[in-house]
């Protein structure tokens, strides 16, 4: 086997192994990003629910304050 053929085969093997490794690592990173996106969505939804509860509580407190203010004026 000639030296040129050996070099060509060696470079082909290295190139192929590099591509396979790159694709594998890329898939791992994509999965991590997708999982992080899902966790972000869950956290946003929980924060939204918490904010709505806080808004309802503030509205109830405002109504109670307004009732007390009207009763104090009477």
UniProtKB/TrEMBL annotation:
InterPro entries, per the entry: Pet117 (IPR031568)
Main location: mitochondrion
Highest rank taxon of the organism: Eukaryota
Transmembrane segment boundaries: 6-25
The entry's keywords: Membrane, Mitochondrion, Transit peptide, Transmembrane, Transmembrane helix
Annotated localization: Mitochondrion
Pfam families from the UniProt entry: PET117
Protein name stated in the entry: Protein PET117 homolog, mitochondrial
